[in-house]
Every structure is written in structure tokens, then in C-alpha cells.
Amino acid sequence: MYALRLLPLARPAHRVLSPHHATRSLSARASRVLSALDLPTDGSLIPGMYDGQWGGSGAVQKSICPATGEVIGQVQTANVEETQRAIQATKGASILLRRMPGPQRGEVMRQIREALGAKTAALGDLVSLEMGKIRSEGKGEVQEFVDICDYATGLSRSMAGRVLPSERPEHVIYEIPNPLGVVGILSAFNFPVAVYGWNLAIAMITGNSTIWKPSPTTPLCAIAVTRLIQPVLERNGLPGAVAALVCGDVAVGKEIVGSSDVDMVSFTGSEKIGKEVGKVVQDRFGKALLELGGNNAVIVDKDADLQMALQAVIFAAVGTAGQRCTSTRRLYLHRSISAQFISMLLKYYDSASSQTTLKAGDPLDDASLIGPLHTSGAVKLYEDALAGIQKRGGKVLTKRSGKMDVGMGGNFVWPTIVRPTNDDPCWTTETFAPILSVAEFDTLEEAIHLNNAVPQGLSASLFTTNIQSMGKWLGPEGADCGIVNINVGTSGAEIGAGFGGNKSTGWGRESGGDAWKQYVRWSAATVNYSSKMPLAQGVSFGV
Ligand code: NAD
Q1: pTM of whole model > 0.85?
Q2: Which of 257, 266, 304, 432 is buried most deeply by CB count within 10 Å?
Q3: 335-349 and 306-318 helices cross at what angle (nearest 10)?
């Protein structure tokens, strides 16, 4: 195995840790981003586990830049025993945290917000470098973390239980929220910072410690975030395991999911893995919060403002190269405006190249709007999906599809519009790539039926100017998703509302709204301040 000497934070980031690994020099592009966060630029091994101490002696994970294929970092992950140790440390830390008054936890959260705020641009660039989303989206993702810290700080003084009237004289009923203990956070590659942020902020403010297993392909984002949080915890006399980190792959994830010392597992990822995770957590009667795949539709009705719809669809279908859980994958067009709207879309899609308005290229270049897919495996899934649609009789409507050469290697593909056959399986599955499937409808009822006729239930949007259609869309006969928008695209939610989806998207809610209520154990407490012992419902039990 690899010889690892740990890297204390105070050491210069470029220090050579292991002669076997410290032989490479990075591109100036990657070095600039990593140095801004004090991450090594010489290929030395980076400890990928933190439970108060940095360490890790599991397998080495390579972080690969999706835009260039360059190895930008090597991370020594946690092994199974170390994961168990970290879980125990997190459990111990939860006892200290739950004793801390909520508003004091709020003050710690405010300081975390400041630490993140000071590095928003640098961290955003790391998201772009490691995940591949464009610069403004990388920064936007960190901003979401900052925003949820603000929200959580406020929540620290307002998380309210309830006082309820009792039917018995001189009795009162309270509903009381208390911390759960340990929240395990398993996150997906496509939001390597924000998803953790939503969970950390709400879990911590409600008095829980956390243990985070990030995606195996975005360990550097996780390490950088944890390094920003670490000094804040230390300054406030809190153990590091209040926000533990275990980089690793499936085995590490399974340790967390299966551990009865992890009171709640907040899992963000695919439906396939989420189903497994949900069953394992259920089997031990733990709590699971599942945020799984989406298959999101936009409906453009005959009375829609087409220019607005166009902007929204392009951002949600092409943005993040189709790699948001909320990306638009299905587009239902009223027959009367369909041809016009498709030609408006194609004007943009067919102009997309490294030279034109919908510019594809280095996500770190401010002018780029289309970045790469995250891995070469994702390119293959994109290609297979397109081949399958065409084999089954569907058509590609865009001039170009397939791999795109922007002159820097990487996993770039052409955003593609397709017209699959009506019964094509692509309508009901999430392909995590910029493929937009189009079909027509004649009535709003039919469009709503099409929107709802898939297993997933994350996000849906209706473009209309008709108030009756709006009412229908939002009501009991309307869209069945967790996010139901009008004249706003399917992606780009704000943190104020609860975020999550229904059906096979997992029914979880994170972030704002009432999401915090899932991170606590609720007790209903009836208190008798009389000198009698009456029973509820007038029951008489003559003693
Ligand atoms: P994924 O399911 O492949 O992996 C998610 C996480 O699970 C990773 O950390 C992975 O290492 C871990 N994992 C894999 N097998 C495991 C197991 N058996 N036990 C425990 N952990 C295991 O997902 P991904 O490819 O990283 O992310 C893309 C998916 O995430 C898409 O389906 C997307 O829609 C979804 N997503 C959903 C939301 C949401 O809020 N609904 C947000 C972001 C992403």
C-alpha cells in the first residue's frame, strides 16, 4: 500500500509527502485553482479522512478533471475500520453538540458562513475544475451553501415545537424537537458542495453531528470544504468529528448506511443506489432521507410567452451539461406552437460550438456556457441513449450529436434534441446528460398526464399565461412533483423552500421550508399540572 505522512493544515500545501506520488507537476490552470485553497499541486497524497485528525489508509482515489482528463489530485481514502472509528468519533461529538444551546450553534454556523464567504470564488473554481460545471454555476453552488448557513443561523433561534390544548383540565401538550444524534451524508458528484451544505447546516443547527462521504470523483471539493470548517470548530472548542469526512467508495458508503450508530442517512444519488440504501436503513429501523433521480418535464402551452420559455428550457436542458437532478429532460409542446418553438430552440442548439453564442469550452473560462460531462462513462451512457432512441425509430433533431471536440480533450458532448417514439423507454428513465426529448400534446389534461406518467417526481414547469391552467397545474389534478413551477424552468431552486421530489425521487426534503423537521426526533409530551389523574377520551379506570 501507499506510505502516507499526514498533512497538517499549517504546512505549505506544496510539501512533498511521498516520493512515490510527488513526481508530477500540474497544469497552470489546475495549479491556480488548487493553490487558492492550499491544496497540493505536486501530486502528493492528500489525506481524505477527517474526524478531528486528518488521515486515511484506504485506496488512493484519483481526482480527474473532466474538461481535460488531467489527474488533479490523489486522495488517500478511509478504509472500513477507519470509517467505523470516524462514526464513533462523530457519535461522541454529537453529545457535546446537543448540549450546546441552539443559538450558540447558530453562532458557529455564522462563522462557517464567513469562512465560506471568504472563499466563495476559489471554491467555486474548484467545483468547476473537479466536477466540470461552468464558473458561474460553480460559484452559485457555493453561494447556496452560504445562503443555507444564513438560513440555519436564523433557524437556530426559531426552530419551534408546539404547545397544544389538552382535553383534560390543567393539562398541556407539547411537541418537542430534539437532536437525533449522527446524520450520515452521502452525496452525488453533480453538487459536490451544495448538497453537503444543505445537510450540514440543517443537521448541525438542529444539534446533530455529521459524517460525510462524498462522491468518489469529487474528493477535493469535500476536503477543501472540510478544511474551511475545521478551524471554525476548533475556535469554538468543538471536536472536529462534529463534521467528519470519510472519502471513499461503495464500501465506505455501506459502513455508514449499515451502522446503527448513524441515526439518519441523508442520501443523494441515483434511484438504483438510493433504493438499496433505503432498504438497508429501513432494515435497521433507521431514518432515511432520499434525494434521488429526476426526469423533469417542461410543458409549453399554446398561450405561453415563448421567449421566456425558450430561455428557461435552454438553461435547464443545456446548463450543467444536463447534469442536474432538476435538468429538463422532457419537453411537451402544444401542437399549435410546437414547430415554431422547436425551430427557436434549434437556432441555439445548432449554433453551439466553441466559437458561437452557446459556447462550449473550459468551464473555468467565463465565456463558456457548456462544460463537459463528468466522466468518460457518462459520455458512453449519453451515446448509448442516443443510439437506442434512434434504433427504436426515434429521430435526432439537432444537426450535431455525440462527442464534441473543443480542443482540450475531456468529456464534451453536443446538447441534443430528440423526438423518440411515444413508447420509448427513454421517457421514463433519467439519462444524466444533455438529451432533451420532445413530444406534442393537445390539451393541458393530456400534458399533465404525460408529466405524471413517469416513476420520478422531482421538478416540473408549466409555461402559460392562463390563470385557470395555473390553478389546475398546482392543484390536486395537477403535477405530482416536489417542485411545481409556473413560467420558471425546472432547475435552479432557491434554498428558502424545502427541496426534493416525490415517488422514485425518494420523497425527501432538504434545505429550507419544513425540511429541518426531519433532522430531529419529535416527542409529544403531555404535562399534568393539576392534582387529579383524568384519562383521555373520558375513559374511566376505577382506581
Ligand atoms: P450514485 O448513486 O452513483 O452515487 C451517489 C453516492 O452513493 C456516491 O457517494 C457513491 O459513492 C455512493 N454509493 C454507491 N453505492 C453505494 C452503496 N451501495 N451504499 C452506499 N453508498 C453508495 O449517484 P451519482 O452518479 O454520484 O449522482 C447522480 C445522481 O444523483 C442522479 O441520478 C441525480 O439525479 C441524483 N441527484 C439527485 C439530487 C436530488 O436532490 N434529488 C441531487 C443531486 C443528484
Answers
A1: yes
A2: 266
A3: 50
Tens-digit pLDDT string for the chain (543 aa): 233 333 333 333 333 334 344 456 899 999 999 999 999 999 999 999 999 999 999 999 999 999 999 999 999 999 999 999 999 999 999 999 999 999 999 999 999 999 999 999 999 999 999 999 999 999 999 999 999 999 999 999 999 999 999 999 999 999 999 999 999 999 999 999 999 999 999 999 999 999 999 999 999 999 999 999 999 999 999 999 999 999 999 999 999 999 999 999 999 999 999 999 999 999 999 999 999 999 999 999 999 999 999 999 999 999 999 999 999 999 999 999 999 999 999 999 998 666 667 899 999 999 999 999 999 999 999 999 999 999 999 999 999 999 999 999 999 999 999 999 999 999 999 999 999 999 999 999 999 999 999 999 999 999 999 999 999 999 999 999 999 999 999 999 999 999 999 999 999 999 999 999 999 999 999 999 999 999 999 999 987
Nearest to 317, CA basis, from 217, 463, 431, 402: 431
Answer yes or no: are the C-beta atoms of 285 and 264 closer than 8 Å.
Answer: no
Contact 96, 331 (CB under 8 A): no
Would you call 291 a catalytic residue per the annotation?
yes
> What is the 8-class DSSP label of residue 519?
G
- Cell digits of residue 314: 435552454
Among 189, 458, 495, 511, residue to substitute to test ligand 1 (most atoms within 8 Å of Cβ): 189
Local structure of residue 370 (DSSP, 8 states): B
Is the minimum distance from the CB of 113 to ligand 1 under 6 angstroms?
no
